[in-house]
Amino acid sequence: MSGTDGAEHGGTTPGPRRRGRPRHSPQDAGPGARERILQAARDEFAERGYDKTSMRGIAKAAGVDAALVHHYFGTKDDVFAAAIEISFEPALVVPAVLGQGGTDGIGERLARYFIGVWENPATRAPLLAIVRSALTNETAAKVLRTFVLRRLLERVAAELDVPDPTFRAELAASHMVGIAILRYVVKTEPLASADPERIVAMVAPTLQRYLTEA
What we know:
mainly alpha, Tetracycline Repressor, domain 2, Arc Repressor Mutant, subunit A, 70% helix, 2 domains
């Protein structure tokens, strides 16, 4: 890109520039650029994993200049964190699920909601990408831990009127994440092909005990 081009286009993008001056084309312009980058990031992380995903590859998949990805997100960690937040959006309503109808049946409601999110192909794909990346890369795992602790488990714990609510929320989360890894990532049998209703029925009492028993 020439100096003249940079002078012409450098002021068209709001906010501070993180690295250089992103070049703008008709594809780059418009309010949908950030969303396209995030969708491309989710797809790239899903297909390639954290280690093999690059900012340049995300930019190419999104149809934008690499500098625009840096402009919006800064680093690959920042893109990954943003992708996690969007992918876990369904999980952020868990506190509301927990609060429906008091503590009676809380284990079943949580198990049913969790399995439902993973059984839906539209929500399962990005979650698989995140879990696979976290299993193979410590940086990705750290980003995921931070998000889950601050945005999810602390909100769940706030709904529990029992001793050690955060510890209990972590136990419940570990149980459900373990099921997700074995059923959807590793695909071990017979769990991988078990009826979702059977899983809910067997898991619900354990989650109920974690979350409610003093």
